[in-house]
Write a structure and sequence with these properties.
4 helices; 2 domains; about 100 residues; about 80% helix
Length: about 100
């Protein structure tokens, strides 16, 4: 029942080695999580930048607006019924399968 000092020392060293392995494993998992999250963040940033650039390309006048003025303008545009209908139409088209899939091709 009583373990010798050598046995206890050996158990301690094995436990310390396992602890270090688990710490390394946890660091790898945390790095992987950060990598995956940054990927989605990069995709979002890319989407926001390209869409903002698209707005400026079709309405170059908005470049002079402050951020608050721009948001106010976008809110007013989004409240306009023809724009709401058009957005709804595009969303519906996006969620429907292509015509070739409907016909069984």
């Amino acid at each position: 029942m009583n373990k010798s000092l050598e046995e206890l020392q050996k158990e301690y060293e094995e436990s310390a080695a396992r602890l270090e392995q688990e710490k390394r494993k946890l660091r790898r998992l945390e790095n992987r999580k950060a990598y995956l999250e940054s990927g989605s963040r990069k995709q979002r940033n890319h989407r926001l930048i390209t869409r903002g650039a698209a707005v400026e390309s079709v309405m170059p006048e908005v470049k002079i607006l402050t951020e608050q003025e721009f948001y106010s303008l976008m809110e007013r545009i989004s409240e306009w019924p023809p724009v709401q209908n058009m957005v709804r139409l595009f969303i519906e088209r996006h969620s429907q399968p292509p015509a070739s899939e409907k016909d069984g091709d």
